[in-house]
Specification:
- By secondary structure, this protein is α/β, with parallel strands linked by helices.
- The chain has a single domain, classed as 3-Layer(aba) Sandwich (Rossmann fold).
- Helix content is 34%, strand content 22%.
- It has seven helices and six strands.
- The chain has a six-stranded mixed β-sheet with strand order 2-3-1-4-5-6, sandwiched between helices.
- InterPro entries: P-loop_NTPase (IPR027417), Rab (IPR050227), Small_GTP-bd (IPR005225), Small_GTPase (IPR001806).
- Keywords: Cell membrane, GTP-binding, Lipoprotein, Membrane, Nucleotide-binding, Prenylation, Protein transport, Transport.
- Intracellular vesicle trafficking and protein transport.
Length: 205
């Protein structure tokens, strides 16, 4: 797909504790490969062009560091995000507990889109024998916090594509987010005609 030709630009953010597999999930989706990656320092950024729901889309996906020392650095990246993916590791209870104790609070604090779509992702289902967080717990959390929910594995790529596609379809189904995504389309976000959200967000680093 020609990079200049797309109907909407959507900004998506991946959050969650360090080591839950955010970077691996993103790599699995954008490159269809798996690597055990070292922890993200600050923020990583990837772009993927997709055809979903009959639309040509440019997805700008921000992968944030889970460590607390980077927390203030990543707060500005919430601005203007149409989709937020909350990731936990089904084999580590504390990564699930921190969703409500840390990450949901951050969304309330920093997210600027009232209608922003949230997707809860339980990663590492390939380690089923080590599972400590049940699927039912994930469903209950998603229901309580108004999230979409899916379990997947970055390693085996189970449900990885579906995770991002379901989130995008929900954004496409939300008129207020759609109008935001149409601003500044067919422009190179790294040149002078930057959409406002990208401009504001890139200034912190």
């Amino acid at each position: 797909m020609e990079s200049a030709e797309f109907d909407y630009l959507f900004k998506m953010l991946m959050i969650g504790d360090s080591g839950v597999g955010k970077s691996s999930l993103l790599l699995s989706f954008t490159s269809e490969t798996f690597e055990d990656l070292s922890p993200t320092i600050g923020v990583d950024f990837k772009v993927k062009f997709v055809d979903i729901g009959g639309k040509k889309l440019k997805l700008a996906i921000w992968d944030t560091a889970g460590q607390e020392r980077f927390r203030t650095l990543t707060s500005s990246y919430y601005r203007g995000a149409q989709g937020i993916i909350l990731v936990y590791d089904v084999t580590r209870r504390e990564t699930f507990t921190n969703l409500s104790e840390v990450w949901a609070k951050e969304i309330d604090l920093y997210s600027t889109n009232q209608d922003c779509i949230k997707m809860l992702v339980g990663n590492k289902v390939d380690k089923e024998s080590d599972r400590v967080v049940t699927k039912k717990e994930g469903i209950n959390f998603a229901r309580e916090y108004g999230c979409l929910f899916i379990e997947c594995s970055a390693k085996t790529r189970v449900n990885v594509q579906q995770c991002f596609e379901e989130l995008v379809l929900k954004i496409l189904d939300t008129p207020s987010l759609l109008s935001e995504g149409s601003r500044g389309v067919k422009k190179n976000i790294f040149k002078e005609n930057k959409p406002q959200s990208i401009t504001a967000n890139s200034s912190c680093c």
